[in-house]
Amino acid sequence: MVKITFAGCGDAFGSGGRFNTCILVAAPDICFAIDFGASSLIALNALGISHNKIDVILLTHLHGDHCGGVSSLLLDAMLGARRETPLTIAGPKGTVAHLPKVQEALYPGSSAMTPKFDVEIIDMDVMKPHEIKGLKITTYPAIHTEATNPTSMRVEVAGKVIAYTGDSAWTQHMPELARGADLLISECYFFKKSVPFHMNYPDLIEHRDELQAKRIVLTHLGPEMLRHRYEIPEQCADDGLVIEL
Ligand SMILES: [Zn+2]
Ligand SMILES: [Zn+2]
User: Which ligand is nearest to the CA of 15?
Assistant: First the structure.
């Protein structure tokens, strides 16, 4: 069984009191997180989940609400949580260079600390299969703030496929991303308005037939979308939502 916990499903600005994106996936042999935003450590603590159990963190892009919590996790893993097991962090192009800079900006002087556990940071090319600790990952180019090297992501674990649009406007790759997935997590930022660089409800309706996933959950809801969420048939995530595949 694969258990997916939406530790955080909010946007960048805490709309609706929601935490930044962090989707935790627990499979028989591995536990991994898809995205780890600035508030994700708080979100995990609120759920009583120890971050020490996370083997791999996958990042869709370099915005703070998707990767800004990694520094806090690493510091706590060294100081408070006393992690002993290896941690792999894989993200888009630029992740290897970006994460240490973020850490030193947020916690000046912290780069002098050396973890007692192995940390591996990996840049993943788009449109190529990657195998990391048994996870089969393919990332696709997304349409979002270009400097964040945005991607959509498809992950196969324990015979199940989880697909996530990341933050992105509709792309030609979305049908392939979603095809046959056991779960498609699609961002849905606005309800009526179609804003650039994001999937919005009008985009989802326009392309609904092209998204051939077994199940769809909407995430990253902004204030306007939150007000209308009960008017639509699609399932919307809440912080703490658990889905078992
Ligand atoms: Zn975001
Ligand atoms: Zn973003």
Answer: 1
Tell how far the Cα of 82 is from the centroid of ligand 2, in angstroms.
31
Q: Which ligand is nearest to the CA of 10?
A: 1
pTM: 0.98
CA dihedral 32, 71, 85, 36 (to 10 degrees): -10
CATH number at residue 222: 3.60.15.10
Residue range of the domain that includes 28? 3-244
What pLDDT shows up at residue 194?
84
The ligand minimizing its distance to the Cα of 12 is: 1
pLDDT in tens, 146-163: 999 999 999 999 999 999
Counting the structural domains of the chain, the total is 1
The whole-number average pLDDT for the span 213-233 is 98
In 146-195, alpha helices (H): 174-178
CA 116 – ligand 2 centroid, Å = 32
Per-residue model confidence as pLDDT tens digits over 124-142 = 999 999 999 999 999 999 9
